[in-house]
Each structure stands twice: as structure tokens, then as C-alpha cells.
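Data's thin. Show one?
=====
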Amino acid sequence: MTPMPTEDQVLQALRGVVDPELGGDVVELGMIPDVTISEDGVVTVGIALTIAECPMRSQIEQDTIRKVGAIPGVRDVRVETRAMTKRQRAEVMSTARLKARENAQPTMVNPLTRVIAVGSGKGGVGKSSASVNLALAMTDLGHRVGLLDADIWGFSIPRMLGTGQRLEAGEDRIIVPVEVQGIKLVSTGLIVETEETALMWRGLMLSKALEQFLKQVAWGDLDYLVIDMPPGTGDIQMALSRLLPQAEMVVVTTPQKAAQKVAIRVADMARRSYMPVVGVLENMSGFDCGHGEIFHLFGRGGGDELAQSLGVPLIGRIPLDEHIVSGGDQGTPVVRAHPEKASARSFVAAARRITELVPPAQDETCTARVARLLEALDAPAGADAEAVANLV
């Protein structure tokens, strides 16, 4: 007589049923709320779908019947589907995102490269200007830096850096980044015919473009890869968290309350995608008229409030400066063209703060710490003893 099937056997069989959209099996995703086995060998499997009209419903049901029906002792399989609650759906999506990050396919970005995604909740807050000036400031601090313009259809980085060079690929079909002002640059703006050409791409094409820029570009050995993200929480943001698990985010906002409330959404997306938020950068934080008075044209305090709500540091405040605007239009970023300006100094200070919060990977290895310790011990008498103590 064939023994009765057990719940463990059923759950083990269900691990072979994969949700094609979420990329995990229905057991690990928490989609099986209950399993009932009757005395006559009828197995009833409860399946919670993300939505009632899930397009994969039929496939999941048929796979379930086939997998469970193959267990010895099972006479019949019945599937009862239901829609998840909002909380259940959030938990499943969180599990799916974590799984995607853990199983990320290799890219041509060195795993030791620190990836800083510069994001914002909406456009018009100066995110791209911040990306350019932070990347250049990091270079001036002695780091090897790449800049990826991931705002695929809203590209502006080539103009801001004053380059009209074209991306080229070698015989191996690997794209070679453009070298401009000491950084490696990749942008769709270096592919299209003119700056005015509209890219009419939908979500999947946008994700594929980002994937190509990460998997088919010879980035080489970089300390930092700064990624200028499109505003909001769309396909590019979700693809980045999947493709580059080491990515961390800097959120750009203005002091305005409305901007701060929108910016918190991109931070929420980052955290739900297991992407750490490094800090908040407040742009357009005040205008110095040159007579000793500061005018807060866009309000004040939004950056502080956002940083406090996220539990991360405010890494800088960038004042309003016409040189940021003119420099972006003319390809002469303010950190290089006018390093004496308060805005340029603020960008440099913010870049330095980022490199302190997310130091180059090689600076964190045991070998590097030992090397710095030996170097400090060999320093002349009177050298900073605190620096040696901090290494021990």
C-alpha cells in the first residue's frame, strides 16, 4: 500500500514551481499559505498571487498540479488561488528583489569599484549638475572615476562636460568609454545623431540599455563609478539594484518641503531594493547676493528633514550659483572653472564626505590597513600620533 504523502513532500515538490515574473519558487517567495491533505490522497494547495488576475496564474496552477501530482500516494490535486494582501505583496516583492540581487549576473564593473547612484524624486533639482561636479571633485581628490549617464532619454552629461566625442567599440564589440576631463564617460548622448534626437524607448529597452552599459563597456579599474539616474522610481532604478548589488545612493533634493516629500520616495525605493542610502545632498540651498545676506528662495530645512527621516547624514548644501548653470551649458563645470566659488567648495566638501562614508575598497582591506600603519610608523618624529592610533 502506498503511504500517504506528507506536507514536507508537497512543499518540496512545490519548490519546482517557479513564478516566471518574480524569478523564485513559490515556496521561498511565501506564496503557499496552506496545504491540506485528505485521507483519500487529495491534496489542496493554496496559492497567493500578487494580483487576482495574475497573467502567470494558469502556468503556476498547471505546474503545481503536475509537480504535486507526481508524488506517490497523491490521487488528485486541487489548487485554490487568492490575491495577496498589500502587506503580503510587499513581503513577496522584497524577497524577490533580494533574490535578484544575490543572483546578479557579472558585469564589467569591477566588484571592488564603489558605485554611487545619484538619484532624485523628481526632475529639476540639479541632479545631473551634482553628478558631474561630484565626479570631477572625486577625480581631483585623486580617485579614478567613471561617470555613467543612466538618464537614457534625458541625457545631459555630454553637454555639461563639453564633449561631442562618439562611443566606439573594438573588434570584440566591447564599448570604450570616452575620456573627458579626467573621467571615463558613457552616455546615450554619445550615440544619438544630435542632442535634440528623441529616444522613444519603453521600459524594457531602457533596462536593456543600462544592462549593455554595464556588461559591454570596458570600464577598467575604477575607484568610483558615479551613475546619474533618471528622476523617479522607474525601470532604470529597479534594474540597477538588480545588476549592481554594490550600488549605493545619494539622494538630491532642494530645501523645499514639496521636493523633500517627493525625494523620500526614491530613498524608499532604494531601501526596498536593498540599496543603501549614503546621504542627502541639498541643492539650491540659498543665494548669496554678495552683500552679506543669504536669500532662501526655495525655502530651507528640506535637506535636514529628509536626512533625519532617513537616518543618514546631510553630506552637503550647494548654494544657488549662476556659474553652475553657465558651466553646465558651456561644458565648464564650476568645480574646475571656478574652484574659488562657494558652490564649487561645497561640491568638493560633499565629494570628500562621500569618499569618507564609502571609502575606496582597497583602502578597507587588511593589507591596505597594514601598509598605512607601517607608513605611519615610519613617519618622522612629531608626526600625527592620532593617525597611527586610529589604524591600530
About this structure: The chain is about 40% helix and 20% strand. The longest strand covers residues 42-49.
